[in-house]
Design goal:
Helices cover about 25% and strands about 30% of the residues. By secondary structure, it is an alpha+beta fold. Strands 1, 2, 3, 4 and 5 form a five-stranded antiparallel β-sheet that branches. β1 and β2 form a beta hairpin. The longest helix is centred in the first third of the chain and has 14 residues.
Amino acid sequence: MASPDHCPCGSGLIYKACCAPLHKGEREAPDAESMMRSRYAAYAKKEIGYLIKTLDPAHDDRKMPEGELHKLLAAAARNQRYMGLTILDRAAPNAEGVAEVLFIARVFERGRDFTFVERSGFAHDGTGWRYRRGVPVAIDAIPGDPKALTLATFPKP
C-alpha cells in the first residue's frame, strides 16, 4: 500500500511534488495524461474547485449551475474511495485538438466496487488541458482482461 504522502494519481511521486502544485494553481498539467492523473487525485483529495476549473467549457456538466455542480462533485469525493489509477493507453491530440487517455479507476463506495474503464478526451484551451468528455464502462462489462485494452480495442458505445 502506498504511503499517505504518495500522490493518489499513481505516479509514484510524493503528492507535494506531483499533483499538489496543479491543485493549488501553481502550474498547469503539461499534457492530457498529467491532467487525467491530477483530476483523479483531485477526487481522492477532495479538490472540488480544481475539478470544476479543469472541466472544458463544452463538457455537459458545465450546463449545471456551479453551486449545484460543486455539491455533486463534493458528494462523489466524500462518498467514494479512490483506490488506484492505471493508465492503459494515450494518444496525442487529433485534428480537432483532442488528446485521449484510456485508464482504469478503482473506486469503491460503501464497500461496493464501482471500478471502471474510461476513454477520456482532453483539449487545450490556451491556458491548460481541460476534461472535455469521457466514455466510462464498468470493469465487469469488459470482456477479457481490461488491462489489455488499448484505445483501438476499447468497446464502441
